[in-house]
Amino acid sequence: MWIYVSESDVLTRLSGPEAAAMKTAALQTGQANPLPEVITQVVREVRGYVKACARNTLGDGETIPDEILGAAINRIRYDLATRLPVPSLLTEARLEANRAAIALLRDVAACRFTLEQPATASAEISAATSAQVVTKTTRIATRAKLSGL
């Protein structure tokens, strides 16, 4: 099933004080809660990994396959934590979760992780890969033909 990533999905993986800090700390005057923008950026990143595998079809809208929701949330959590000057938010467990999320997304891109295909395909145009066919030609000038010149 293809789903939208919501703010509440992300907040299930953060404690209350962390969620409050990540949404309100280190903001400039007039700057809004960064969580919706980070969600959008990571969803587009995840969709890029999905689109990299020729067997996959993108779902409609800004949706992702539910099989990789955990990886998306780990990427969102990491991106939110790195915007704050608080090193304690980036524990070794969270760093490892981010590395594992990227590894899973790379497997998706390499077609090593099978995803459920969407019921409604996206109208988004993706860049098609192209291949140039090269043929081998017979050499006219060879070492034997040119000997003695």
What does this structure look like?
- The protein is mainly alpha-helical and 149 residues long.
- The chain has one domain.
- The protein is built from six helices and two strands; from the N terminus they run βαααβααα.
- It has a two-stranded antiparallel sheet with strand order 1-2.
- It is elongated, with a radius of gyration of 23 Å.
Summarize the topology:
Blueprint: E1 2-4, H1 7-11, H2 16-24, H3 35-52, E2 63-65, H4 69-82, H5 92-109, H6 143-146
Antiparallel strand pairs: 1-2
Question: Which descriptor suits the 3D outline?
Answer: elongated
Order of the strands making up the biggest sheet:
1-2
Strand count, sense and barrel status of the largest sheet are:
2 strands, antiparallel
| Number of discrete domains | 1
> How many alpha or pi helices?
6
**Low-confidence parts:** none
Strand content: under 5%
The average pLDDT score comes to: 84
Structural class computed from helices and strand pairing: mainly alpha
N-to-C series of helices and strands: EHHHEHHH
Q: End-to-end distance, in Å?
A: 71 Å
Give the tally of β-strands. 2
Q: Helix amount, in percent?
A: 40-55%
Alpha carbon gyration radius: 23 Å
